[in-house]
Amino acid sequence: MGIDPYGLRYDDTESALSVKARYVDDDDTQKARCAGRIVLLRDIGKLIFLTLRDVTGTIQIGLSKKMLTGQWDLAKLLELGDTIGCQGQLGKTRTGEITIWGEEDGLTFLSKCLSQPPEKFHGLSDVDQRYRQRYVDLWANPEVMERFKIRSGIINTIREYLTERDFLEVETPMMQSIAGGAAAKPFVTHHNSLDLDLFLRISPELFLKRLLVGGMERVFEINRNFRNEGLSRRHNPEFTMIELYQAYGDYRSMMDLTEEMVCQCAEKYSGGLQIEYGDKAIDMSRPWRRATYADLLKEHAGCDIDDLSAVRAKAKALDIEEAGMDDAVVINEVFEATVEEHLINPTFVCDYPAALCPLTRRKTDNPEIAERFELFVSCMELANAYTELNDPTIQEENFKMQLRGQQDTMATMDTDYVDALKYGMPPAGGLGIGIDRLVMILTNASTIRDVVLFPLLKPKKAQADTQETEASSP
């Protein structure tokens, strides 16, 4: 037929949604021009009805042998999954379906689908295949496309919220010579020309705070962090964070900002502040609960945070291997095991043990407590914030304590950051929010894989070997 199955540009198209929105009954002068993928096809002889799907939705295309005399052979070759463009008169069928009736030379072939699409386009149901072939999942399951459109909208809402409040968006290094800013195992790479080992960043924190020293009083970055850790329903080794710092603030101002910003996202993309997540009903209404770490530990574990023998006894009762652990780490293990499952509605857990927070300012009246909060929603950590430590002497000592610690094997001394603090960093509040987890909650996604376009997965062969081993195990 001399037709290129992989066509050229197709201009002046309208979305399916806009065509339907502008349709006027009984106006036979309306025309439309759309492009999309064929997701439904009914061939009834001299008539072919197609359903085209684009990013906004679907629209029906009607092709008749009478009107497409020169292109009828092409129309008869169309199959599910093919991408086409169609131009013609807009009307309704007897059943009331808004339809573009293809006109002579109005059919354009844009891309041939050679692989078998999901049966009847009723969705791709194999979960593993959905993640591995997201390019199929997106057009086979409209709700998946909608979730990622919402994700983009949430990020834009956060960006607009911050820029309207004079925050400056910046970019900091993704490859760093020191893996600092969080207690996590990094991915290691090597720069050949410099013969230098580098780390994919685990956090942008120390670079963003250098900018406070330089006079950028309000900064934020939305970007990826990388942590060489396990996969789970809540964890992907690369994940998206919004991290921000505000000079002359503290962790209380970060609470106010977090409440307002997240509620704005919930109202815009979840339809209100009463949301469903799994089998839980979550009330996002402000003000959110604020409770101290020590009070929650007492309430749910029955331990006083200062009674270390009682905390270690509780750890043993919970089968936590506490021998050799630093006291603060044992306390936190007990907290995670007993408290977090109760934090369903948004809860700011405030005032952490200072030993867990080497980058955080300590409370003036109690140096054993750090001015830090973590936000929990639906039993899941969503945000982490500090009143930032800006005393270089204390910061240097905290780094040294980390190096001496028994658990933090990845601890490092960032002497350049300490040197930066010696120039004077203003008092500040800092905040990090996990974008992936926020999208999970606001779209009712049960796993982080549902909100990451291309999540890291075990290779198929390794997965098959694991399944065979499990099947043969007694």
Secondary-structure blueprint:
Layout: H1 16-22, E1 31-43, E2 47-54, E3 57-64, H2 72-77, E4 83-92, E5 98-111, H3 127-132, H4 134-140, H5 142-163, E6 168-169, E7 175-176, E8 188-191, E9 196-200, H6 205-213, E10 218-226, E11 238-247, H7 251-269, E12 274-277, E13 280-283, E14 289-292, H8 293-301, H9 308-317, H10 327-338, E15 347-353, E16 362-363, E17 366-377, E18 380-387, H11 392-404, H12 415-421, E19 428-434, H13 435-443, H14 460-472
Parallel strand pairs: 3-5, 6-10, 14-15
Antiparallel strand pairs: 1-2, 1-4, 2-3, 4-5, 7-9, 8-9, 10-11, 11-19, 12-13, 15-17, 16-17, 17-18, 18-19
What attributes characterize this protein structure?
BirA Bifunctional Protein, domain 2, 2 domains, five-stranded mixed β-barrel, 474 residues, OB fold (Dihydrolipoamide Acetyltransferase, E2P), alpha+beta
Task: Explain how this protein is built.
The longest helix is centred in the N-terminal third of the chain and has 22 residues, at 142-163. The protein is α+β, with helices and mostly antiparallel strands and 474 residues long. Helices cover 31% and strands 28% of the residues. It has two domains: 16-117, OB fold (Dihydrolipoamide Acetyltransferase, E2P) (Beta Barrel), CATH 2.40.50.140; 139-288 and 345-472, Bira Bifunctional Protein, Domain 2 (BirA Bifunctional Protein, domain 2, 2-Layer Sandwich). Strands 6, 10, 11, 14, 15, 16, 17, 18 and 19 form a nine-stranded mixed sheet that branches. A five-stranded mixed beta barrel has the order 1-2-3-5-4.
